[in-house]
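Moderator note: this is an archived Q&A kept for reference. The question asked for a predicted structure of one protein chain; the sequence and the answer are reproduced below.
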Amino acid sequence: MKAENSILKKRVYAFTTDLSIIVVANYFFMASFNHFIQTVFFHFPIKIQLFLIKKMAILSSVSLMSLTFAYFSLFYFLSNGQTMGKAMLGLQVKNRSGEELTLQQSIIRAASYFICAMTGSFLFALSFIRKDEKSLADIFSNTFVENEDENKAKQGTEFQLTLLKTQNESQKDTLDNSNKAA
């Protein structure tokens, strides 16, 4: 149970890291757009410039939603089920067959984050409530989040596997020799 909670903690930290990256990117995008309006449209009447700047709040919201959707769907699809936050914390999203995510699964997973946000964000806590620890994104996209460190430890490196094979053979030889001596 403790290991499962650490995965949930890692998921929260990874998601928070990803959202922080998106917010910072959106801030720089909006700052550059504001500078663009002031430098390119400087010859326009001040009323038009102010109108465009006042519409920045709407544009900021739209760009934040677009960046969020693009960030999650493209990162999940292009980087083997990892966003920057998940890669930093050693997590990976896989589909139920253990393969890489399809584009459709990545898009559904990213869209489910919007559903969680639109319903008051309490659905983000779904993985803490459910016994199988699936989030809404996991349920809709038929995926799961895996700790890469545990997966690598289960598989072992080629050197470790060769070492185990050699060790098993030497133990078998020792048993054979002791049986012949007896």
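Archived answer notes: Residues 58 and 102 are 32 Å apart (CA to CA).
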